[in-house]
User: Fold this.
Amino acid sequence: MKLQESDKGVVIIDKHAISYGLIRSIAEFEIPIVLIYFETLSICRFSKYISKAIRASFVEPEDIPTQLIEISKAHALTNYLLIPCEDIVLEQCSKNQNVLSKYFVTSFPEWSTLSIYLNKRLSYHLVEKLKIPFPQIFHIDRFGESQPSFGKIPFPVIVKPDYNYYFLQKHKAKSILCDNVQSLLENIQERSSEKYNLLVQRFIKGGTDVLYSFGGVSINGKIIRGLSYKRLRQHPKDFGTTTSFEIYEVPILRKYSEFIIQANHYTGPFEIEYMFDKEIEKYVFIEINPRFWGGHTIFNASGNDIISVLINNFLDIGVKPNNNKEWDSWQHILTDFFIVFTKNRNSHSIKHFFSSLSKSWHPIFNRKDILPFIVEIIKSPIEYLERRKS
Assistant:
C-alpha cells in the first residue's frame, strides 16, 4: 500500500502481544496502520489489518532515532502517531523527541518527565514524596561501590534493577529472590552493571494472590480512562508476566494512581503495579510502565478504549470506538496454558483455565485475523528452547 503525505495514521514499533493488541484495537477505526518490526517471525506483520510493514534493525539503541527518521522520510509518515511499545525504544524516542516530532506525531513525554516513571529509583522517590506506601528499600548498589555487610536486613529480600531493559536482556528475569546474606552478596556481585543500579528491597509474599494493577490513559496529568484489575496467574510465579487477570475495582488504587500521574502532568498510556502487603495491611506501589503493556486490550474489550483517546487528542480525526463490549477478564491462551499444565497443575487452575476460554478476552487469538495466532504457536517452542539454552 502506497501511503500519501496527507494520510493520518499510526506507526507501531513492534513488541509482540502489546503491539498486536494495538493493531487489533486501531483496526476498528479504519485508519492506516504502519508496523515497524525487527524479527522475521513477528506475529504482527502477518496481520491483515496492517497497511504497511517495514523491517528495521539496530546494533545499538542510539541507532533507533536515525532509523525512524529515515523510515519516515521514505514512507511519508509525518502525520502518523508514533507509538513505541518497549522501554528501550521509548527511552530513545523520548530523548530525541524534539527531532522526531519533525517526522512523526509524538505523544510521549520528554525524557525529564518519562525518566521518573521508567527508572524505579526515581519512581520510589516520587511516591515517597506523595506519601504512597512502597516496600522498604534497604540498599541501592551503584556499580563499583563497596557493599555493606547486610547483617541486619530481614530476609528474604529481592534484588532488582532501577531500569529493567539491560538487566532483563542479560539475566532473563525482572528480580532475584535472596534468602540470606551470602545469596544477596553473590547476586549483587554477579548482576552489578554500570548500565543500572541495583535495589535491595523487602520481599512481599503472596504472589498473584496479592498482585493488582491500575492502568489507563491520561492527558496532561488527568486520567481520562482507568481500570484496576487483579492478577490471577503469571509466569514465573514471582516477578513474572501476567497470563490471566480480571477487572477488580479497588478505589484506593485509583486514588494513588491519580496522585502519581498528576505529579508530573503525564500524558500517555500507563500501568501501575501494586501489591497488598499483609504485614502492614496496605496496598503498596511496585512500579509503573509509562507505555502500552500486555494487558491493555482489556480496555477495548470492556468498552473503555484508550488508544482512541490518544488518536483523537494528537491526530484530531474523531474516531469513535465501540463501547458496547462487556468483557471483564483477560487471558493469553498459550502462556496461560503453559502455566496451568506445567507449573501450576491442580484441579482448580485447570478448571478455571477451561472456563475462562469462553469468558475472557484473548489478546492474540482472533477468528477474524487468525494468522498472528498461528505464528505465535509456531514461535512459542522456538523461543522456549532459546530461553533454555541461555
Observations:
- The first strand starts at residue 9 and ends at 13.
